[in-house]
Structure prediction request, 380 residues.
Amino acid sequence: MTSADSIQLRVSRYRPDTDAGPHWQEYEVPLRKEWTVLDGLNHVKNEVDTTLSFRWSCRMGICGSCGMNIEGEPKLTCATFLSDYAPGPVTIEPLANFPVIRDLVVDLSDFMAKLPRVKPWIIGAEDHSQVEPDVEFLQTPGQLDAYRQFSMCINCMLCYAACPVYGLDPEFIGPAAIALAERYDLDSRDHGTSQRLDVLGAHDGVWACTFVGECTKVCPKHVDPASAIQRYKLKTALHTVKAFLLPRGAR
Amino acid sequence: MTDLRTYKPRISTWWWTRKRSYTVFVLRELSSVFIAWFVVYLILFVYAVGQSETAYRNFLDWASAPWVIALNVLALLFVLLHTVTWFSLTPQAMVVRIDDWKVPAFHILAGQYTGLVVVSLFVLWLVTL
Ligand code: SF4
Ligand code: FES
Prediction:
């Protein structure tokens, strides 16, 4: 059945206990103006096929758990409208570049292991002169503005799914992790830049990136990881030059 | 942790044909080969000039062979592609802040193209001198 008030979802299915690999399954769902792809999937789950697995939580672009590849493009399914794909069908696949656990659910443990390596938290000055508990850390709007964009990341992993470098070389620490490193580096309260440089200057760090720029294009939060990575390259390069030219104390 | 039986789809060799932006990226990477060619060409040219007038004439004869011209035109196209795409990426890589003011991308781009024009004019003046 295909009619103007319904649309077909072409969903990638995989059940690890019975399937050798993924296969397609089609579902027909109502096409409503205000329905997102996630609403379509929830309709299937509630009314048609309870075995379908996928992740979601906030359904308002905040939690970052509903990322999937829609028509080959990484998208937040709660922010992607079915009507934009009318008359259909709409292909729905798990996020690219990640191992698939079941149906549309991917395994993110790789990112979970990488994230703490870039130390995404505020690192105080070594002499602790600035971390008195009763001291307020004032920041001008300009100082906030320097890193604000990078603090908007919701860890949705769309950028990893769009990145061919990560797809071909999973060692690459990846766009969001680097953007988060930059978020703390640019924070006027942070003193951790050199610690992060050690991690990001390594072979699986920023230099693995060849500036495809897709991470920035797919990011639903306008984080611009590509910019963070290139700025880091500049920083690591300068750091190396300085280490080469200047005596130890002056760096 | 329980053992996960996951599958990971393989990336096809032709992944870069799937999307226009991927294709442009691969072409941009490929352009480095042509840039290397221009470097070789320039070295050959300077070498011939340094040798003798006959060597220089021979070089000119060789350089006007149709295949060399075709190769150079192709290389020029790739170098232009490289320049334009690379320029347009620079504002992302270089964020210039003057106090709290972020220099807009447009200014950075304009600066690059101005630089390109100035250098080109200088080279033109140099060779037509
Ligand atoms: S940088 Fe953007 S695309 Fe990447 S995880 Fe963060 S919010 Fe998602
Ligand atoms: S469900 Fe939370 S971002 Fe989509």
Summary: The beta strands of chain B are 97-98, 101-102. Chain B has a mean pLDDT of 87. The pocket of iron/sulfur cluster (ligand 1) is lined by residues A 153-159, 175-176, 179, 218-219, 221, 223, 225 (CB under 6 Å). Residues 48 and 55 of chain B are 5 Å apart (CA to CA).
